[in-house]
Design brief:
Order of helices and strands: EHHEEHHHHHHHHEEHHEEH
Strand content: 5-15%
Number of domains: 2
Helix content: 55-70%
């Protein structure tokens, strides 16, 4: 579906845990138990991806955990539509319904093929009876997301209803905090009941809540920081009439990897240090206008960092975005300097808060 899939480190680690829990039945059955978890996650996330496509939501990536996947949306419109009432409700229903429907189909198939499968015997999930475990893992995955713990589906619905009244960022932080409390309660309950699956569920809910909390924090930062706060104001420019040899000389005496190309006050292109070097090696000396990239985007000083990051990562191969005001280049933002600028800005804001407190 064109969505980048990432697997959290703890997902494959769960395979080792399942094998360890199934030592009495053999490592093959332990691995089979792990694939029962994988099957439940695949069913759930396939259904959610289909619903996202039906709603017209554009996804950039999905991070897979044993409790399901966390979506990263490709644009703010998709993020906003996903948080709206109807879209959010459809996304929340898709996963559990798909798991329960799959459980019913598997149960019917297994009972039809053999009447000796005791689906209602306990333990429901065990490496000794993989077919029974396959059915109940689907049921368990669906029931898990009925819990009001963020980032589970029911927790997302509760967060969405409060976010429309109190704002996304503060509600998100409160929801992740509640999710971590419920996750801890599940882990303690699992230890008291000697139920390893309840412990695993609580642990991975906590991991998911932390990942979501980091995403909420990052989103709140990128949506408030403006370009004028992080753009480089001390930078070099080139002219389209400069020779490549002169441009190379400027590269030697500059830390920039990419240069705005200006004719007078007007921005006409962007050229990279590597493009200049390659052109000199292959074709000899020429002019900057022959190698500069005329396809570029610009930002304004009041644009947010989030908008600029989406431009840099939109798949157009952009490494630099000039910041213009009244047609004049007043700064540049590049992948190269963005992280250092952000860390320095965070330090500056910390000092300002300390001074305000004094």
């Amino acid at each position: 579906m064109g969505v980048e899939m990432r697997v959290h480190l703890f997902f494959p680690v769960l395979a080792i845990v399942c094998i360890g829990l199934s030592a009495a039945d053999g490592w093959v059955r332990g691995l089979g138990l792990f694939f029962a978890v994988v099957a439940a996650v695949v069913v759930r996330e396939t259904a959610r991806l289909l619903v996202a496509a039906w709603l017209g939501l554009k996804l950039r990536a999905i991070l897979l955990l044993p409790i399901g996947g966390l979506f990263a949306y490709a644009d703010p419109d998709s993020q906003e539509n996903a948080n709206k009432g109807g879209g959010q409700f459809a996304m929340a229903l898709a996963g559990p319904l798909a798991n329960w429907a799959t459980a019913l189909m598997l149960a019917a198939a297994f009972l039809g093929a053999s009447g000796n499968i005791r689906l209602l015997d306990q333990p429901y999930i065990t490496s000794a009876y993989l077919l029974r475990s396959l059915v109940w893992m689907q049921v368990f995955m669906g029931l898990l997301h009925v819990l009001p713990a963020y980032p589970l589906d029911c927790g997302r619905l509760i967060r969405g209803s409060f976010a429309r009244k109190h704002g996304f960022a503060p509600t998100g932080r409160a929801a992740t905090g509640l999710g971590q409390v419920l996750a801890m309660a599940a882990m303690v309950g699992g230890m008291l009941l000697h139920n390893p699956w309840l412990i695993f569920a609580g642990f991975f809910i906590m991991i998911g809540a932390q990942v979501e909390d980091q995403g909420v924090f990052f989103q709140s930062v990128v949506d408030t920081v403006q370009m004028r706060e992080v753009m480089l104001t001390d930078f070099s420019t080139l002219s389209p009439s400069d020779t490549l040899a002169d441009a190379l000389y400027r590269c030697v005496h500059s830390l920039q990897d990419d240069f705005p190309v200006v004719r007078g006050p007007q921005l006409v292109g962007i050229v990279s240090r590597q493009r200049i070097v390659d052109a000199l090696r292959n074709d000899g000396n020429g002019y900057v206008q022959s190698v500069m990239n005329r396809a570029f985007q610009v930002a304004r000083p009041e644009d947010t960092l989030g908008t600029t990051i989406r431009r840099l990562t939109a798949g157009h191969g952009l490494a630099l975005i000039p910041v213009t005001e009244s047609g004049k280049v007043v700064g540049i933002v590049s992948v190269q300097n963005l992280m250092s600028s952000m860390s320095l800005l965070a330090e500056q804001r910390r000092l300002e808060r300390e001074e305000a407190g004094d």
